[in-house]
Amino acid sequence: MTRIGKTFKKLKRKGRKAFIPYIMAGDPSLERTGELIGLLERHGADIVELGVPFSDPLADGPVIQRAAERALKGGVSLRKVIRFVSDIRRKTQIPLVLMTYFNPVFRYGLEAFMRDASEAGVDGVIVPDLPPEEAGEYRKLARAHGVDTIFLVAPTSTEERRKKIARASSGFLYYVSITGITGARLALAGEAGESIRALREMSGKPVALGFGVSTPEEARQVAAMADGVIVGSAIVKRIAQDTSAQGTSAQGTVAPDTGVPDSGLEEFLTSLREAI
Predict the structure, then answer these.
(1) How far is CA 200 from the centre of its chain?
(2) Active site residue 60
(3) Is 50 exceeded by the pLDDT of residue 195?
(4) How many CB atoms lie within 10 A of CB 142?
(5) Residue 244's pLDDT band (boundaries 50, 70, 90)?
(6) Residue 224 burial (10 A CB sphere; 0-12, 13-18, 19+)
(7) How far apart are CA 81 and CA 32, in angstroms?
(8) What pLDDT sits at residue 233?
């Protein structure tokens, strides 16, 4: 069983749901990303979704797009992110899931990507622009290297397509709350709970919901129906505020006791964990 599978199994035994925060690797730097992973773990994260910056995203909303732009300006690439994961594994064993796009993976080379990701300690990969029908070789290599493949299910996915996605996914299924991009306002369709229950029964796998979860109350609402709650833009926005405040601090106008500006990120993470 993979590290992701063990995490969901442990949480189920305890009657708890998974808190899965998303952050962008390299925003504002890979060094800071390492610090943030530690912070997320200390505040109850069960799995961390690590975005790989890409210049032409399809699923990312404006907050995450800007984070990717900042990381790209810093020279962060898929290869550097994998190397970073290898380094951070000396400090943490929390499951790490990369969210990237197929173009960088294809350019890296499918086999080399899965080999290097696995050796670095990547536990799962999300490639939102890779349909399961075209993912045969990708899934085969992922299985060979013990990397989970997590596919997205949309509220508009047909029953036949949901079955294909369920078969192609390992680790967990990612249920998208809306037919749009990340960061949009949460708008759970009335049948979301029923869809998640049906997906869980069909696949025998945990189902986590993401896109648009931005408050503890929304996280609580999602946790009542899903096995995991993914929060991205609301966290990335606070990290950006911290970074901006650090710049201000460097000019001498902010001098927090800890030396680190506070956007309320830690309190926000605590409130999310308590809600989930």
Answers:
(1) 20
(2) yes
(3) yes
(4) 21
(5) confident
(6) exposed
(7) 13
(8) 92
- 30-42 and 265-275 are packed helices; what angle lies between their axes, rounded to 10 degrees? 40
Helix (H/G/I), strand (E/B), else coil: 148: strand
Read off the tokens for 220.
């609580």
Question: What is 157-226 written as a DSSP string?
Answer: --HHHHHHHHHH--S-EEEESSSS-TTSPP---TTHHHHHHHHHHHHSS-EEEESS--SHHHHHHHHTTS
**What is the sign, positive or negative, of the torsion defined by CA atoms of 28, 244, 239, 212?**
negative
The dihedral through the CA atoms of 154, 155, 159, 162 has a sign that is positive
Q: Residue 182: which pLDDT band, with cuts at 50, 70 and 90?
A: low
160 noted as active-site residue: no
Whether the bond into 28 is cis, omega within 30 of 0: yes
Q: Annotated catalytic residue: which of 27, 46, 49, 227? A: 49
DSSP state, 56? S
Q: Which of 27, 31, 41, 60 is catalytic?
A: 60
Q: Is the pLDDT at 133 greater than 70, yes or no?
A: yes
Tokens matching residue 28: 């504002």
Helix (H) or strand (E) holding 40: helix 30-42
Q: What backbone torsions phi and psi does residue 267 show, to the nearest 5 degrees?
A: -65, -35
Q: What is the pTM of this model?
A: 0.89
Residue 75 has pLDDT above 90, yes or no: yes
